[in-house]
Specification:
The structure is a single chain. By secondary structure, this protein is α/β, with parallel strands linked by helices. The protein has a single domain, classed as Alpha-Beta Barrel (TIM Barrel), CATH 3.20.20. Helix content is 38%, strand content 12%. The strands form three sheets. Strands 3, 4, 5, 6, 7 and 8 form a six-stranded parallel beta sheet that branches. A three-stranded parallel beta sheet has the order 9-10-11.
Length: 378
Amino acid sequence: MVLDTGRRRLLKGLGAGVGAAVAAPMLNLGSVAVAATGKAYPTRVVDLVKRSLVIDMLAPLTLVLDAEHFAWRLTPEEVARFKSSGVTAFHHSAGIGGYDDVLAFMAGWAGFVGRNSDLFLMVDRVGDIEHAKASGKLAVIMGQQDADHFRTPADVKLFHQMGQRVSQLTYNAQNLLGSGSTERIDGGVSDYGVAIIEEMNKVGMTVDVSHSGDRTTLDAIELSKKPIAITHSNCRALNDHPRLKTDEAIKALAKKGGVMGISGVRMFLSKQEPTTVETIVDHIDHVVKLTGVEHVGIGSDSDLLGYDKLPPAMNKALRANYKASYAFREKIDTDGYDTPTRLFDLTEALVRRGYSDAHIGLILGGNFKRLLTETWAA
């Protein structure tokens, strides 16, 4: 989801079956408190997160994406929150709008990373994510949740040179490339969309269809010469919501080598309560059973604080920006996934569900590392 701060201007001025079971999946030889919340997790869980390359393929650094934050200097408390999150790489992405807005977004957030270079490292290639992990820094992958800024195919190379590494083809609405998930009619990928996909493959930019409609999603999977990503969505078989992906799409994605990141947004997970971290794992399980564990990852679709902590006026404005089919409930964040250490909570739930350490490592980031390596190769 994430806020669309350009076209919509919401804030202007104000991320083969269930993993192999272990004999005692919750064997706890002690616990470790994680700094951001003080919550204690089993030692196995903390060790798993700490040694994994954790790539959250939709995790904006903040949901407040106005220009005020371009000059944001982190406080010691904020630094501690980021460091204790367990995340190695944040895919910082939003639906900004047109060419000028995206130029400002790219330049502004590059400046933010530079001002806070003791903590963050801007990603150019996959090796930068590994380097960040080794050096105790956090990697920032720059992306966009729309492609309106590609005025011509030549703009793909231009924005790639500026650091953009991922682009959705569409947000929720129709654009020149294809149809969004809440459009009444989905005509699939246009001729112009074909040209953009070809150029993205050529320069080494990951194609993302998280918000695209069903036909556009399937077309993009078929047309791309490289595997593509669904960076943040969920399974429609478990929750009939237009923003989610069909089993047909998930299987087609996996057949081409793609990876689907599971979102933590409440109304994307379930229409019923309770909606908890276990519900997120239900969606992970579903993808694993359809395709194998090699094709699922994490795309939290929130910053470390979550939507429900936004100021009330901002929360109200966000909700008003979407069609009724988005089906917002009282809360947007998922219970147990609404803290800065949410990846520890998710890892603990995966352990309870019987996933092996190796498979949890793939889900936390190994699968997306493989995909990014393949798609970023020019």
